[in-house]
Amino acid sequence: MAGVLVEKVYEPAIRHAAGLGRASGETDPDTYEKAHAFCDVLVAGSGPAGLMAGLAAARGGARVILCDEDFAFGGRLLSENCMVAGQRGADWAAEAVEELRGLANVALMPRTSLLAVYDGNSYAALERVSDHLAVPSPHRPRQRLWKIVAKRTVIATGSHERIIAFGGNDRPG
To answer: CA 73 to CA 66: how far, in whole Å?
Structure first.
């Protein structure tokens, strides 16, 4: 009797209060894919450290996968005024990406986020294939889940400055 009361009275009331209802029943019109990749060096992040790691490994003959969650490679070099190897950071990043793009042993994966790391140096990565398109192609998937197995990995995802809080630290000058 108590089980019926919980199932018929309390559970619907709790679900309604929490904003939980029934699933719409509509099927997802988008398609999704799974894929596998193997490499010698997986580079996560395409700022200056990631681009340099990718270049060094690729020039040495390693099979390289360079992935970044952004649509453009270069990280902060694209938005800050800095110099790298005697030229503007954005220009250096563009040249590095062009060199990487021209190498047969390099796979560039923009719009791809590493999600997890597993035993055996295997990684899960989510590539957003057509999320950014207003009208995606009917034959392209929305997203692709990658299983990447790498011999070595370089994590070059940048850094965050953590300001030490003290009295008056936010005053100008």
So the answer is: 9
